[in-house]
């Protein structure tokens, strides 16, 4: 009996999603009203094609936010010797703030989209994942019986609020010709986090960003997820 050869996957759905993401980020950086009709027309796809991939603008924004945070966390697959866990998590905060500053026009634009609270919740979810991985790195430094899921959500939500406030302020600063610095944003975030997380005592100055510190690799973050989620439920 003759076997049917495996067919190559159809690349069109992936191209359509990529086109919608690209146009959404372009429109986010512009002073324009982002709607499903406008986004689909500019991406060169039909409304039906849009809705075959996304249920709403919320889904598009959630996908963009996820891509941004995952890109920050995917680099540097190995952790070199010579760095402490506290330096590693602080380096991650600097990298996150660098990425926000680099894409500030897109992110500011998306703040004006007509979206529900679910998209904002997606941003908090992504930052919460970053903190939960940081907790695993700092396992010996974390207060006993800390409810990690709830604390990660608390920290993720707080950082999201700080980033949104900075994005709005940065627009005013840029319009008035003031220099923007992601280091200032990162230092503000580090300053409000607990000392057991940053390794910096309350009231002490924030040291310069760790030079050469790696970013958190996704593969390591995922490999311990199930085990630590079980630990969270007992905390």
Describe this structure in words.
The protein is an all-alpha fold and 235 residues long. It contains twelve helices and no strands. Helix 4 (57-74) runs parallel beside helix 7 (117-137). The longest helix is centred in the C-terminal third of the chain and has 28 residues, at 148-175. Mean pLDDT is 76; it is low at 75-79 and 217-235.
Summarize the topology:
Elements: H1 12-28, H2 36-43, H3 47-53, H4 57-74, H5 85-102, H6 104-110, H7 117-137, H8 148-175, H9 182-192, H10 195-198, H11 218-223, H12 225-234
Helix pairs in contact: 1-2, 1-4, 1-6, 4-5, 4-7, 5-7, 5-9, 6-8, 7-8
Give me a quick take on this structure.
The chain has 235 residues and is an all-alpha fold. Helix content is 66%, strand content 0%.
CA-atom Rg in angstroms: 20 Å
Helical fraction equals 55-70%
The backbone outline, from C-alpha atoms, is globular
Number of helices: 12
Range of strand content = under 5%
**Mean pLDDT reading:** 76
- What about the largest sheet? none
Q: How far is the first residue's CA from the last residue's CA?
A: 58 Å
Describe this protein with a few key phrases:
globular, 235 residues, 0% strand, disordered C terminus
């Amino acid at each position: 009996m003759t076997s049917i050869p495996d067919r190559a996957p159809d690349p069109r759905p992936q191209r359509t999603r990529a086109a919608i993401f690209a146009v959404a980020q372009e429109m986010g950086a512009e002073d324009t009203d982002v709607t499903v009709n406008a986004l689909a027309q500019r991406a060169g796809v039909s409304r039906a094609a849009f809705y075959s991939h996304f249920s709403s603008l919320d889904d598009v924004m959630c996908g963009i936010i996820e891509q941004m945070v995952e890109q920050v966390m995917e680099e540097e697959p190995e952790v070199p010797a010579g760095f402490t866990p506290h330096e590693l998590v602080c380096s991650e905060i600097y990298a996150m703030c660098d990425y926000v500053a680099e894409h500030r026009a897109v992110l500011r634009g998306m703040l004006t989209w007509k979206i529900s609270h679910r998209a904002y919740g997606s941003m908090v979810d992504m930052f919460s994942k970053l903190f939960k991985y940081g907790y695993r790195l700092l396992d010996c430094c974390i207060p006993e019986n800390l409810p990690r899921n709830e604390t990660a959500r608390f920290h993720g939500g707080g950082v999201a609020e700080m980033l949104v406030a900075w994005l709005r302020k940065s627009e005013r600063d840029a319009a008035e010709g003031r220099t923007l610095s992601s280091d200032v944003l990162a230092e503000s975030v580090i300053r409000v986090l607990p000392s057991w997380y940053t390794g910096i005592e309350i009231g002490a100055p924030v040291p310069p960003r760790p030079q050469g510190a790696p970013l958190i690799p996704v593969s390591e973050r995922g490999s311990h997820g199930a085990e630590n989620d079980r630990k969270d439920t007992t905390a």
